[in-house]
């Protein structure tokens, strides 16, 4: 099934990236649609620190910049929607 394969690839990529707790936290908040400034305010860290975390996430995931990062976030969101609306046997 495509979903399972795509889901495996996404989660495998995240786990192999060895993101720190803070990077996972920033990734999760990006996925929720928060801006860097909103993440900064919420986590009580500087805007530059958030941007640094995002840059490290992009590098560790093997992405080629912000556009691929946005696309990766979209794939995570699609996966969540499919899971939410899928019917379990």
From TrEMBL:
<dbReference type="Pfam" id="PF00196">
    <property type="entry name" value="GerE"/>
</dbReference>
<feature type="domain" description="HTH luxR-type">
    <location>
        <begin position="12"/>
        <end position="77"/>
    </location>
</feature>
<protein>
    <submittedName>
        <fullName>Helix-turn-helix transcriptional regulator</fullName>
    </submittedName>
</protein>
<keyword id="KW-0805">Transcription regulation</keyword>
<dbReference type="InterPro" id="IPR036388">
    <property type="entry name" value="WH-like_DNA-bd_sf"/>
</dbReference>
<keyword id="KW-0238">DNA-binding</keyword>
<dbReference type="GO" id="GO:0003677">
    <property type="term" value="F:DNA binding"/>
</dbReference>
<dbReference type="InterPro" id="IPR016032">
    <property type="entry name" value="Sig_transdc_resp-reg_C-effctor"/>
</dbReference>
<dbReference type="InterPro" id="IPR000792">
    <property type="entry name" value="Tscrpt_reg_LuxR_C"/>
</dbReference>
<dbReference type="GO" id="GO:0006355">
    <property type="term" value="P:regulation of DNA-templated transcription"/>
</dbReference>
<keyword id="KW-0804">Transcription</keyword>
């Amino acid at each position: 099934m495509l979903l399972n394969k795509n889901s495996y690839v996404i989660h495998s990529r995240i786990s192999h990236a060895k993101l720190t707790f803070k990077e996972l936290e920033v990734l999760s908040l990006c996925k929720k649609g928060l801006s860097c400034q909103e993440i900064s305010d919420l986590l009580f860290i500087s805007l530059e620190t958030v941007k640094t975390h995002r840059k490290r996430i992009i590098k560790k995931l093997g992405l080629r910049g912000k556009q691929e990062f946005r696309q990766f976030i979209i794939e995570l969101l699609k996966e969540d929607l499919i899971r939410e609306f899928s019917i379990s046997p």
